[in-house]
Amino acid sequence: AISLVIKDISVQKRIEDENRFLASIVSCSEDAIIAVDDTLSITAWNSGAERLFGYRYDEALGQKISLIHQSCYHDDYPIHERLLDGESIRQYECTRRRKNGSLVEVSITASLVYDKSGAIIGSSAIFRDISSQKHILNSHSNLNQRLHILIDNIDEVLAIIDPETHTILL
Question: 158 or 36: whose pLDDT is higher?
C-alpha cells in the first residue's frame, strides 16, 4: 500500500517571502531602526543604527536602550511608557549618545510591537539624524539676528525692497 500526504505550503512560503522582504527593508535602511522588549533590552539593531550610534549589532543586542542615552538623559515620561499609555510618538526630537561619547540630534518615530495573539512584547523606533538640519536652522537664526542688529544700527537704510516684486521686505 502506498500512502501520499500532500500539504499546501504556499501560504507558509508567501509568509516567509514577505518576512525576508521586510527584513531586507529594515536591514538596508539609512535610518537607525531599533527594537526593545518589555524590559527595554535591545532585540533588533540594523546597520543604520550601527552607522548612527557606532555600536556593532553584537555589541548592542541584549543591552538596555539606555546605551544610547546621554548621561544626563532623564525623560520625565520615557518613550516606551508613553506608547503604553496610548500616545503616538512621531518625529520626537531629542539628543542621543554615540559609542564615542559624542551627541547626535535625532528625530524618533516609535510604536509598540505585538505578538500574534495581540499582546505587547516591546516597542520599535526609527531614529533619523537631524544634526545637519538643526545646524542649518541655528545658522539661519544667527544670521537673521545679526542682520537685524546691523540694520538697527544703520541710520541711512530706510527699507529693503525685493528687486523682483518691488515689495518692502523690511
Answer: 36
